[in-house]
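Example record

One chain of 748 residues, shown exactly as stored in the release files.
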Amino acid sequence: MKRRDFLKFIGVGGVGTGLGFVLGKVSKPPGAKLIPYLIPPEDIVPGVANWYASACTQCSAGCGVLVRVMEGRAKKIEGNPQHPVSKGKVCARGQSSLQALYNPDRIKKPLKRRGERGSGDFTEITWEEAIKTLSQNLTELKSKGEADKVHLVSSPVRGHLNTLINNFMAAYGSPNYMQYELFQNRNLLYANQISMGINTIPYYNIENTKYLLSFGADFSSTWASPVNYSNGYGQMRQGPGARGKLVQVEPRLSLTGANADQWVPAKPGTEALLALSIAHTMIEKGYAKGDAGAWRGVLSKYRAKDIAPICDVTEARIEEIAKEFGQTRPSLAIGGDTLASYENGVSGLVAVNILNQVAGNIGISGGVIPNPEDFTGGRKLDFNKKISTLAANAAQSKIKTLLIYDVNPVFTTPVAAKLTESLSKIPFIASFSSFMDETTAMADLVLPSHTSLEDWGDDFPEPGVGAPVATIIQPVVSPVFDTKGLGDIFIELAKGIGGNVAAKINAPSAAEYLKASWKELYSRNKEMSAKTLGFEEFWNKALQNGGWWGAERKRSASVSARAAEYLSSTPAKFEGEENQYPFYMIPYATAAYLDGRGANIPWLQELPDPMTSVVWGSWVEINPKTAASLGLKEGDLVNIESPFGKISAPVYLYPGIRPDTIGVPIGQGHNHYGRYAKGRGVNPIDILPFKENPKSGEIALNSTRVRITKGSSGERLVKMEGSTKELGRGIAQTVTIDEFKRMKKEVV
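Predicted structure tokens for this chain:
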């Protein structure tokens, strides 16, 4: 390889905002050799970084980021200070995008299955063969009139890539495009739709509230938009005026709960009743606002004295919260994943909306602010498309070809769903994923896609910030391996299929499709086109800034009377008889792994869990009193058995959990997914019943009781924290209140 060609390939990192278009024409040569980087191209200064604005895709929050690039390699990721969602911040998962980009376990070339399905045994093929194989499969089905037997399941894709995929599937003749992930806020979206008539997650204006009442929303760690909400919480606590108060209601103390002023460990499954009891108390005591009187009859059966023993929260505590929540202005109630993950999760989230309605918190600063809808018009969750429907269609041989992108339902659905068995009946499966996860291992053909740091795209974050936000994703480096952008894969498939599909998807590349789509947005959006000399100027500025964001748009909403139809009068149900399975199990997402997608990143495996400091494994959180009654000590291996299966994990003594409850983190327990994830820890989802909300399609994670017995062998508990005992060293010095007062006087 000649030196000038080498510089051509690694030197494209400094070409500025036009980077992606250049990268689209650059491909890595095979067998490149390492050559001293002595005389760089004119547009690169060795040791001097270029920063490129883009978006993080490690979760669905849609944070804006800046990527530091030196000599053609991405080195560091930070939050974009101009972006309304991230405001210059980024979480650990966002930082870890670099290790997704350069991960040695990425799928490096297209693959064709040669072993048994699910074994992960593949052989490498060319892109030409891969595109031809899939195009022929789709063409054959279309010619037979079986286009509707092609299904596509992806992660929650937004923006113009979602529009491109929708157009492809519509032109092909299949209505079967479904978006799915474990934490998709399906219950929250459904609850907002039926109670307030809005199709988006509202902007919970934590920054400006004075009293935040959270029902299981771990916004400091994993819920909805943790970077944005954590920043807002910091402003709430430290901003001008009175310091805001946080009350956290949840049976297991989360990171957000650890930062709260009060933790209310309600009995699992009763939080919805507690919210309604608080609302009833506000009305009866005169703390309510607006049309609260209209809810008096609906809430009459949720009297504090009746609900208190059910929730294991005293009547006095309920009345105290009702008084503070009603009298503090503004106040805000939110419902998170713990509440949403019960079998009656929709009921709980509707209850939280009613609580906000009774307090007069909807549509005000510091309260619930409805967001504008995605102005591409392309994203609206179809609640009729559920993972259970996919499994049923597959089991009944109604699916001939399944396309999978960036989603791992085999790992994130309970074994009781029998999804693996159902998918095995599909004649042909193609995956566009970057990693060999449990679902991709079942594929017959793998067409690996770029990571977001190598690709073009855009994003319209949800939840938003009360204003329109459009983020541009641009490639910051040359593709590391022989992969393609998903948009380009679909464009090539359209050409391979031909006919009306090729006519509908006629863009030369995904990059040009994106730019043309933004040009159309620009032409019909006066706010976008204001103060610019034309689209090219606007486009260049948007690339430099990381996107475009408009002014806040006030929208009104209220909870309708029909919301009462969805309220529960009893606690959520847990499978298993109490005398045989005495403990509630709460599986929860962690800051590092979320739904399991972060387990293949060594930085995240090495990141100590903020509440336990455990690394590289799983654990079960047990209250010290419970552990003592069972004869257990920290680090002991235990079997956790539900009516649906058994897992084993070491004990972590955790005072922040109810004695009748255990907590197990989600994310570990992979059978595939690379060297850093495979064979490590356990997956608590495996021992859950398959309970899916029939209306929203969300899987109920908090749905089973378990029993605990001592185990014999398994992984050790590896944690970063030291001993809680001082061993006579006097590390923690204490004084009495009287001594402190005397000391204070002496200092003065």
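Notes: Confidence is low (pLDDT under 50) at residues 1-30.
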